[in-house]
Predict the 3D structure of the following.
Amino acid sequence: MIDISHAGTFKLGDRTVNRLGYGAMQLAGPGVMGPPKDRQATLAVLREAVASGVNHIDTSDFYGPHVTNQIIREALHPYPRELTIVTKIGALRGTDGSWNKAFSAEQLTQAVHDNLRNLGLDVLDVVNLRAMFDVHGPAEGSIEAPLQTLADLQRQGLVRHIGLSNVTSKQVAEARRIATIVCVQNQYNLAHRADDALIDELAATGTAYVPFFPLGGFSPLQSDELASVAAQLGATPMQVALAWLLQRSPNILLIPGTSSVGHLRENLAAASLRLPADALQTLNRIGATSR
Ligand SMILES: NC(=O)c1ccc[n+]([C@@H]2O[C@H](COP(=O)([O-])OP(=O)(O)OC[C@H]3O[C@@H](n4cnc5c(N)ncnc54)[C@H](OP(=O)(O)O)[C@@H]3O)[C@@H](O)[C@H]2O)c1
């Protein structure tokens, strides 16, 4: 029996969510474009996640585009009261699948309305501004103007809470002068630990850190050390990778993605996996070079 409450909870704005959540990006078609191969299977994954206690789902209207949000709506609307859906704006997809910056006031406003319509909501729980100075990772540049637009949309009552994605520590500080920031979503996992200092900084202020690609993303994590720790503990490598994140810092919220109910169950069961000190030591060596 899977019990995700073992992983504990954390505050996301005025909501309390289980630390084990779900990332919906992989529900769209290949390359996060177009419809999925098996729509019924995607609906089943979402319904199983919520039935298992997941109350934090990460999405964006630029997944598909529109497709992922429409699947979430079909699977789960009317939404349970305890479900928090976090979306992100700041990018637009090209017809070739490219990810392009969309930071103008018109584009950001349109993106909020697209999310509201496709999710079937009157107000979005949390909206992350996704920085696009470099699509592949955080890069410096002012986010003041787009954040002012998002703060205006919040004042209009369309957005409850604001977060950031793909940002530097300096951008978090800049953003905090404009709005309350409830979460930061950057790439981070066992093998990619550039954000170690930022995670500690956010933990000190009670701000959630939500690592994207917690399992390695499009190329899932592979490492001999990870495989050997998993074998010793009778767990799978993906469960160990998630348990390591849970133990890394209490402000880390997980949103592993999967399009399979089997993988979903496996990932949620990581809530009950406790890594002993010697396993943590071995696992810490994997990402030591990326810091
Ligand atoms: N802010 C951003 O810029 C940004 C960027 C990327 C992603 N995100 C968010 O982060 C979430 C998580 O990222 P992600 O889904 O791309 O990457 P991920 O969670 O690191 O990994 C997902 C990949 O791992 C596979 N997988 C999942 N569970 C598995 C298991 N137990 N065993 C073996 N393989 C497994 C999935 O394939 P199967 O479908 O076959 O299980 C999928 O290919 C996304 O859903 C999205 O919401 C945000």
Q: What stands out?
A: The first helix runs from residue 39 to 51.
